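User: Here's a chain of 245 residues. Predict its fold as tokens.
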Amino acid sequence: MSRRHNREITESCSHGKFCADRLFSDLPRKSLDAFEALKSVRLYPKGVLFFLEGQPPLGVYLLCTGRVKVSIAAPKKKTRILRIAEPGEFLGLSATISGYPYEVTAEALEPCQAHFVKREDFLRFLCQHGEVCLRVVQLLACNLRDAYQQVRLLSASHSPAHKLAKVLLAWCGEHGDNTPHGISLKTVLTQEEAAQLIGVSRETVTRLLGEFKSRKIISLKGSTLLVHNRAALESMASPQTPLQR
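Assistant: Prediction complete.
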């Protein structure tokens, strides 16, 4: 990673305390200040692993900038992507609390900055700040709910087109920019990774993207995807519940 890019990331997250504010909204200032005193700032170039599935938990990460691929090992040496973590999210939270090995692998999809807190410091912090402990329990409950949603999506007998349409709609809602020609978004996943996310083969994703392009639903130029016909995607994804991250 270049020195210039390091500086840009650091400057964009020089107010890292605000990342904690988003996670710990409406909590006492003393709790936020206590967390601030524990964290250390770390930079992660694209492709670097935060931690590996099965490793003992060293601590918890609060993602400040960038996006992270969260995955598990699947049969036949394959990988299944569970979700894409966004800024403001915890990584390694459940393993850090339980003491069991990390359940997933976390890999930087783009240059990231995160706040790291050692496991023993984080557990002591929770014991001393009961209001934060309750918020963490709520976060774990939300993570569990999202995991159930992902299992429902993958286990239901939906067509690959249905699943891919849900993913594209989710990306539009989270990262899309409205333009005169449609919704523009930068894709951070390769076609292989998109296939891992919805549980199909890469060839299937390639074929579906080709069909969407021929029907003028989308167009692709490099890493930029333009959705011309969101209504068509919504029709393919209907009437199921929108994909959860």
